[in-house]
Design goal:
Two copies of one chain form a homodimer. Helices cover about 40% and strands about 35% of the residues of chain A. Chain A has about 100 residues and is of the alpha+beta class. The radius of gyration of chain A is 14 Å and the shape is globular. Chains A and B meet through strand 1, helix 1, strand 2, strand 3 and strand 4 of A and strand 1, helix 1, strand 2, strand 3 and strand 4 of B.
Amino acid sequence: MAGFKHLVIVKFKEDVVVEDILNGMQKLVSEIDAVKSFEWGQDIEGEEMLGQGFTHAFLMTFEDKQGYTAFVGHPCHVEFSATFSTAIDKIVLLDFPSVVVKAAT
Amino acid sequence: MAGFKHLVIVKFKEDVVVEDILNGMQKLVSEIDAVKSFEWGQDIEGEEMLGQGFTHAFLMTFEDKQGYTAFVGHPCHVEFSATFSTAIDKIVLLDFPSVVVKAAT
């Protein structure tokens, strides 16, 4: 699915229980209709030089930028973000309209 | 689509013609069957603090880790990587089996 993407890559603090964060995220995306799809993963290649310590990627898809804006301003997101920000050591956010070059069949 | 993901986020060097890179990437994914889907985007939010200078995200999907391994070892990828690596100022790679929490409908 193309649409507008919200990509978050993080390195969590050492004492963080990632499962708790994931549970919160699952609840979040189930509560907010504007989130059309959500997938995540934990790096398994462990190329430390090229991962720069980042371990997890989270990718949400919205129909368009308006959907993303609605998500960002949603009270559940605001609340979740406050918790999330205390759990992370490093973060990079990228938000972009997705260009699909080769589509899954 | 779930599968195995290869996520690349980069900041290009200033004198790089991104369109040339993209053309090369499009050619690459069209040549390698193991790449099941490919999408990319350029950050438009420009939250410099949280983007850390990264501007582009590239996301490829493979059926499984074997597909990814085939891609990495493919001569076209090896050739492309050599060019790509001269164009980048910063890069983060994450490779992971994707967990789909909410699927696009």
